[in-house]
Write a structure and sequence with these properties.
The protein has helices at residues 6-19, 22-30, 35-57, 66-89, 95-102, 105-116, 123-146, 151-173, 180-201, 211-238, 240-244, 250-261, 268-285. It is mainly α.
């Protein structure tokens, strides 16, 4: 029996606790500021803070040559596309549903890894994806009726999950020589820069930079964008698929946050949908031939 690594367990648990809080924190912030403005400020601020620590405090060298392109590609998928689409979707989807959708990421990452590695995708992997999608659909159905979610919002969530999975597989495929904090700082900063034109074009009046906005922004920058992503990159360095197992806990923590902090409904449909998602994860990751 393989010995459990306590450091890996604490890293994964810390990541899941922090990462699952993003939807709820984002919901609070969106009550004050429009989506793209909110997250563009978040990404640029988090990126600058990380880069100051990486280069001014810890004196890490700047990326060179092809490393700039690799970081830009990773930032496009992991920050600009994934989180840019995610924050737009949050306006139309309950926070609990977004965390349930995150749980499908391990299955997407597994299938994309198989495609990149030219491995045949097993039938059980396709079954697990379909079962997970069914679970999300069942959990979402009553929320569509009550106005807590929309079909367009759910489709945006699925799209951003795909972007995140592509980013994770790409990161694992690159033989990085840079420190994680340097990679994270530049990819978050580049992602923010990529969103600036869209935030500018879609800007609307009515933003309120109140206390709620600043608290939400601070939480998303430090615990989520900095700490959680650092933990995620540490997990990815070992094994992308093994690391993705920690995403299984995100629905559990996410529903807890959404229910107690946002007072979102937790119905029988939610319980059934969550059970199907967990079953899909078991089939996709643990059931061996």
């Amino acid at each position: 029996m393989k010995k459990i690594d306590p450091a890996f367990v604490f890293t994964g648990l810390g990541f899941a606790l922090l990462w699952a809080s993003a939807s709820t924190a984002g919901k609070f912030g969106l009550q004050s500021v429009e989506p793209l403005t909110f997250f563009t400020i978040r990404f640029l601020t988090a990126g600058v803070l990380l880069l100051i620590v990486a280069h001014a405090v810890w004196k890490h060298p700047l990326p060179r040559g092809v490393e700039w392109r690799q970081i830009a590609i990773f930032g496009a998928f992991n920050t600009a596309l994934y989180l840019g689409i995610f924050i737009l979707a949050l306006r139309f989807v309950a926070a609990g549903i977004t965390t349930m959708a995150i749980a499908i990421n391990p299955l997407m990452i597994g299938i994309l890894s198989a495609i990149v590695m030219k491995r045949k995708v097993l039938v059980r992997e396709w079954v697990s994806i379909l079962l997970g999608m069914l679970g999300v659909a069942i959990a979402t159905y009553p929320l569509l009726q009550t106005g807590h979610s929309t079909l367009g919002g759910v489709l945006l969530i699925v799209l951003c999950m795909l972007m995140y999975s592509i980013g994770a597989v790409y990161y694992a495929s690159v033989k990085w020589q840079l420190p994680r904090i340097t990679i994270n700082g530049w990819q978050v900063f580049f992602g923010g820069l990529m969103l600036v034109p869209f935030a500018w074009l879609l800007h609307q009046e009515g933003n309120q930079f109140d206390t709620r906005f600043w608290i939400s922004l601070a939480w998303l920058i430090v615990p989520v964008s900095i700490l959680a992503v650092q933990l995620w990159l540490r997990l990815l360095k070992d094994d992308a698929v093994r690391a993705s197992l920690w995403l299984f806990l995100c629905p559990v923590f996410g529903f807890m946050y959404a229910t107690f902090l946002l007072h979102e409904p937790f119905t029988l449909h939610t319980a059934i949908g969550a059970a199907l998602v967990m079953a899909a994860l078991y089939i996709g990751q643990f059931v061996k031939k």
